[in-house]
């Protein structure tokens, strides 16, 4: 089992994908920290604050440090899809299953490896965002670390990235065509799912019982960022973490069942 | 790692695979013996690859099973040290080097990286293997696939069309290598091919498949049949009489020639001389493998057109 996990990490780090992604995630973290750091502290003038999402000092700091996650989790979704999709695409799944015929162990190894990769990229993202964000907040006369809750958010953002990678893994198995899986996965996560969340909020039942449990909503609740409308229904951070974990478990679990049964040809 | 490990028997028992209404492999039973090279033959689409994939636990059989050293592939504790397989559709990530591909497999199976480099040396691609696999030629892919199959020093080697894309020198090297593995190390070697002649020089045994069914199983020597001698002379009936008198079986060989059931052309020449008949041609013969292969598998290529139910009786 440890061999299979190490093999999954080796697969990831022996193509050029990993450092391209690392650069992307680092830059996204730094750029959004800069943008949000200036925006939420009113650097563009008081009138630019009108209609802005609002929150207390902790929520502002959270938003600045985790602003890059909106790009980061899409990249992790992509990594999750590719970790299995490229095996189907290049037929390496055959040699993978020959070396480890217990397919559930292969999937379990991928799950562990992707959580580790997610946490690793989380650190890369935070390196960019905390560095730039703390500088901007300090320069704007705000407190860079207003409360201990910020540390919790930073830690949870590592989990968020790992969980999105698992969602990608599930999508990659359910849609064995890698290109289709990437397009559909990113398209749904980036556009369809947030729009659906918006639509659900149009009526009361959806607003209170459905919308908060959507993956992107749960993600925002975990990191406790600033809010567009303060009265908006939102889960507690721990409930949101459980919700996103459930999404990851359902998708990766459905993928595991399929993988165990599917013929490899 | 002990490279003197002996081979293991592979038993295919009542193996059947249906894809919807299409029967790709139909109640297939045969055995592959250790210490021998077995040619696994059939036209394209006969079900060879599906059979191999079922043997390796990649495709689930509709019924029947395959035992390797008495166990199903999925139950082998250390599969790569029992079976090494190079399947046709095994491919490589174009962005990963061949050496890294082998390192991934070795890591999964707990095989040291030093073994990876040994196998790259053995298959003659140590330098190329550090480049990304996207640039590899077909011949290099075959060598890399072979290196992958040998990683665990397996007792059974399963190679799907290994000669495809190899240059003549590579094919010669491969033949010698497989012979060495089976004769000296006692390993079981199963080699699939759609050309009987390709394996005729290497294989000890043959298993021939057509339309997903077994049409012939036996030794290569049996398949090639009794040796014979073709002879041409001025008076065929006089020579046939003289040969019969020496208790040699004779058949008309077409175009006025005679086919004599003997391995020794000198006997035929001596009889002709004694009978005072001129010898115009004297040729030792074996069964025409290409012809034999066609006659065994004729009209059964399901990929070429609609199948008549009649071919089932024809093949049986």
Which descriptors apply to this entry?
heterodimer, A: 265 residues, mainly alpha, 11 helices, 76% helix, B: 316 residues, alpha/beta, Rossmann fold, Alpha-Beta Plaits, 2 domains, 6-stranded mixed sheet, 4-stranded antiparallel sheet, disordered C terminus
Widest beta sheet: strand line-up of chain B: 5-6-7-3-8-9
Largest interface: A-B, 27 and 35 residues
Shape of chain A: globular
The appropriate CATH architecture of the largest domain in chain B is 3-Layer(aba) Sandwich
Q: Count all strands of chain B and give the number.
A: 13
Give an overview of the whole structure.
The complex is a heterodimer of chains A (265) and B (316). Chain A has 265 residues and is mainly alpha-helical. Chain A has one domain (2-257). Chain A has 11 helices and no strands. Chain A has helices spanning 2-13, 17-40, 57-66, 69-89, 92-99, 103-139, 149-174, 178-200, 204-210, 215-223, 237-261. The model of chain A has no long low-confidence stretch (mean pLDDT 90). Chain B folds into 2 domains: 10-223, 3-Layer(aba) Sandwich (Rossmann fold); 226-285, Alpha-Beta Plaits (2-Layer Sandwich), CATH 3.30.70. Helices cover 34% and strands 25% of the residues of chain B. Chain B has 12 helices and 13 strands. Chain B has helices spanning 48-55, 79-82, 98-109, 113-122, 138-150, 168-183, 196-200, 220-224, 236-245, 265-274, 289-297, 310-315, and strands at residues 10-19, 22-32, 37-41, 63-68, 83-86, 156-160, 188-193, 205-210, 213-219, 228-232, 250-254, 257-260, 281-285. In chain B, helix 3 crosses helix 4 and helix 4 (113-122) packs across helix 5 (138-150). At the A-B interface, helix 1 and helix 5 of A face helix 1 and helix 3 of B.
List the helices and strands and how they pair.
The complex is a heterodimer of chains A (265) and B (316).
Chain A: H1 2-13, H2 17-40, H3 57-66, H4 69-89, H5 92-99, H6 103-139, H7 149-174, H8 178-200, H9 204-210, H10 215-223, H11 237-261
Helix pairs in contact in A: 1-6, 2-3, 2-4, 2-6, 3-6, 3-7, 4-5, 4-6, 4-7, 4-8, 6-7, 6-11, 7-8, 7-11, 10-11
Chain B: E1 10-19, E2 22-32, E3 37-41, H1 48-55, E4 63-68, H2 79-82, E5 83-86, H3 98-109, H4 113-122, H5 138-150, E6 156-160, H6 168-183, E7 188-193, H7 196-200, E8 205-210, E9 213-219, H8 220-224, E10 228-232, H9 236-245, E11 250-254, E12 257-260, H10 265-274, E13 281-285, H11 289-297, H12 310-315
Parallel strand pairs in B: 3-7, 3-8, 5-6, 6-7
Antiparallel strand pairs in B: 1-2, 1-4, 8-9, 10-12, 10-13, 11-12
